[in-house]
Write a structure and sequence with these properties.
With 220 residues, the chain is of the alpha/beta class. It is 40% helix and 19% strand. The protein is built from eight helices and seven strands. It has helices spanning 6-27, 42-53, 70-76, 95-102, 146-149, 151-156, 175-185, 202-219, and strands spanning 30-36, 59-65, 81-86, 112-116, 133-139, 159-163, 190-193. The chain has a seven-stranded parallel β-sheet with strand order 3-2-4-1-5-6-7, with helices on both faces. The longest helix has 22 residues, at 6-27. It is globular and about 45 Å long. 40% of the residues are buried.
């Protein structure tokens, strides 16, 4: 006999995500759920974002990892509030985990929460956390064919970062083929080519993010 657990799990997750979203709306906090493969550059992008926006906006980061607090330590060293969630083997964050993390933050003193999801291009896609936007990073070294192999994450993301563009000379990355695949899967997605290492393209990313934060504040 087949026991169908997926729908009840997702239904419960959706209810908690709705509560998270309503809470963030009350406080006027914009919430970004950042997805990517391990090593794609999530933490580097978050650090670059903090550097660009911390003088204007109050930021906190929720770090999701299977184990360790390496990334949360890096975030805290910038003076930014960071909450570590260790999933103990689970390949994604869930809304209940975010709800618990939110209780540790001073929500009245925040404008932006960035959730760094567990490094995975499959599992996190299906779980609503109560975020305003899902964004994902594809780094140049991962290859231009990833949209064909992992269509779900590219379809669910409103913003897509093409990261580590400074490495293009070292890799056979067909940007035309990548954009063509992306256009077929998600023609309305915003694309931000950038390098967190050199700073190229970061201003365009943070300008878009600033607009999202201001829009959320104006609607709260």
């Amino acid at each position: 006999m087949e026991v169908k657990l997926k729908k009840p799990i997702l239904d419960f997750n959706a209810r908690v995500a709705k509560e998270n979203r309503e809470l963030m709306q009350q406080h006027g906090i914009f919430v970004l759920d950042l997805l990517a493969s391990p090593g794609a550059g999530k933490t580097s992008l978050i650090l670059a974002t903090i550097e660009a926006l911390a003088s204007t906006y109050r930021i906190a980061v929720i770090e999701g990892d299977i184990a360790s607090d390496v990334d949360a330590v890096k975030i805290k060293q910038t003076g930014t509030a960071a909450v570590q969630i260790n999933t103990g083997g689970a390949c994604h964050l869930e809304a209940t985990m975010i709800a618990r993390a939110l209780t540790t933050l001073e929500l009245d003193k925040l404008d932006l929460i960035i959730i760094e999801n567990v490094g995975n291009l499959v599992c996190p896609t299906e779980f609503d956390l109560g975020e305003d936007v899902k964004a994902m990073i594809l780094s140049v070294p991962e290859g231009h064919d990833k949209p064909l192999k992992y269509p779900g994450v590219f379809q669910s993301a409103k913003a897509i970062v093409l990261g580590k563009i400074d490495t293009k000379p070292s890799f056979d990355f067909d940007e035309h083929a990548f954009k063509q695949s992306l256009g077929q899967l998600n023609p309305h997605a915003l694309l931000f080519p950038l390098s967190a290492k050199t700073g190229e393209g970061v201003q365009e990313w943070t300008h878009w993010l600033s607009n999202q934060i201001e829009e959320k504040k104006s609607c709260s």
